Amino acid sequence: MPREIDERKKRKALRKLRKAARLAEQGLGPPLSDWETQFLEEVEARIETYGSAFADPEKGGRDEPLSALQSLKLREIDKKARGKGKSGFKQRRPLGGSSKARVRQIDEIEEDTPAPPPLKPSKPKLVKASEKPPVAISKQAKPKPPRPKFRVIKGGVDDN
After folding, report:
1. Residue 132 clears pLDDT 80, i.e. is over it
2. Residues with Cβ within 8 Å of residue 66, at least 6 apart in sequence
3. Which listed residue, of 63, 66, 114, 153, carries a Cα 20 to 30 Å from 146's Cα?
4. Do the beta carbons of residue 81 and residue 32 sit within 8 Å?
5. Per the domain annotation, does 140 fall within a domain?
């Protein structure tokens, strides 16, 4: 039982299907798989016969010739036929650097350069308060404001 589908939408969907098949035949991108060519043929046949390529109304609009997933797959096939890659998740480049990490090889390390001597941990020294350098005002702890004093007001609910 065919649904009422706008003729312009049907023609548009058929045009997209045929264009994707024609581009795939030209060989601009990688060849389509058997499944993809069969998908294009079957969806085209269903649209011509029934006016729509899907029956379940939850999978797309009632006035649309293709379901949401069918139109998504058609876009992917079209991109593949044009030679453009399939878009998906891509790895982000690190911020502030090149895409290739610099790796040092063992033979790059110079043998004749002496290693710097290790630092000795020094003992902390006691300093008198009078010898301390003055601390900047912005770094000093600011005095806290005094806490407000609370008082009980008579005549409330509990004073009966």
Report:
1. no
2. 13, 43, 47, 52, 53, 54, 60, 74
3. 153
4. yes
5. no
In the chain, % of residues over pLDDT 70:
70
More confident residue, 2 or 129: 129
CB 5 within 8 A of CB 63: yes
Quote the domain boundaries for residue 40: 7-82
- From its phi and psi, is residue 93 left (phi > 0), alpha (psi between -120 and 50) or beta? beta
Report if residue 128 sits inside a domain.
no
Mean pLDDT of 108-133: 73
How many residues are listed for the chain in this entry?
160
Q: Which of 45, 39, 49, 48 minimizes the C-alpha distance to 71?
A: 39
Q: Check: CB of residue 37 under 8 Å from CB of residue 21.
A: yes
Residue 144: C-alpha distances to residues 54, 94, 135, 147, 148 (Å): 72, 45, 19, 9, 12
Residue 44 lies in a domain: yes
User: What number of other Cβ atoms are within 10 A of residue 153's Cβ?
Assistant: 6
